[in-house]
Amino acid sequence: MDLISAATTTDEASRAARVAVLPVGSFEQHGAHLPLATDTIVASAIARSVAATYDLLLLPPVTIGCSHEHVGWAGTVSIRSTTLAAIVSDVAESLRQSGVDQLVVVNGHGGNYVLSNVVQEANTEARRMALYPGRDDWDTARQQAGLTSSSHDDMHAGEIETSLLLHLHPELVRDGFEGADHVAERRDLLVLGMKAYTSTGVIGRPSQASAAKGKAVLDSLTDSFAGTLLVLHNGNRG
Asked: Cα 200 to chain center, whole Å?
């Protein structure tokens, strides 16, 4: 139930939200210590928190994304970028037919690059869609939570993702993350994929993770979301 809303149609009719929140994750390897559904769990947690805080329509997550850089790792499943774009566009159109004019896509997987294009195209005639969190939102969350690693070094299954899972679902974090640190440059990631840079699936420092950091990250992202709503409503953050 953490991944879906239990609201009824009566609940949503009463809420009458004009903004919906769609979490988008992935189903891909996250080393030996985090589940394949990590990105979906993270995106859903952010979406649930902001929906509750700002009284928005919470949608169920898209659980498989564009994870082609993880090809060859056991359990990883991907969909085409065109498929993901079509799903998000179809959801937005269906929402408009129900009177919900704006959609925020909460992305939990960095490889879902196509979402940026979908959002840009959706806003050519009116402010209809936003993508969250942005790089600035993540950087602010890292700073406020006291993370020791940078977003560049902490790419995958590292400090921030392990911290979030330790806060959200500690029972899903397997033993061994304390010794799983691995940092690597990946200049040609789009060509070579993850296997060229890590044998464990980890690029980051999960040893630095803690539940307290995970809670602080989620709290920061929930607060920063107010700026995204202001842009959708007013066209600026002021």
From this structure: 22
pLDDT in tens, 174-208: 999 999 999 999 999 999 999 999 999 999 999 99
- β-bridge mates for residue 156, sequence order: 203
What is the share, in percent, of the chain residues with pLDDT greater than 70? 100
What is the SS3 string spanning the chain? CCCCCCCCHHHHHHHCCCEEEEEECCECCECCCECCCHHHHHHHHHHHHHHHHHCCEECCCECCCCCHHHCCCCCCECCCHHHHHHHHHHHHHHHHHCCCCEEEEEECCCCCCHHHHHHHHHCCCCCCEEEECCHHHHHHHHHHHCCCCCCCCCCECCHHHHHHHHHHCHHHCCCCHHHCCECCCCCCHHHHCHHHCCCCCCEECHHHCCHHHHHHHHHHHHHHHHHHHHHHHHCCCC
What integer best gives the mean pLDDT of the chain? Answer: 96
Banded pLDDT at 1 (limits 50, 70, 90): low
- Assess whether pLDDT exceeds 70 at residue 77: yes
The closest of 78, 62, 80 to 4, measured between CA atoms, is: 62
* Collapsed DSSP state (helix, strand, coil) of residue 30: strand
Domains of the chain: 9-234 (3.40.50.10310)
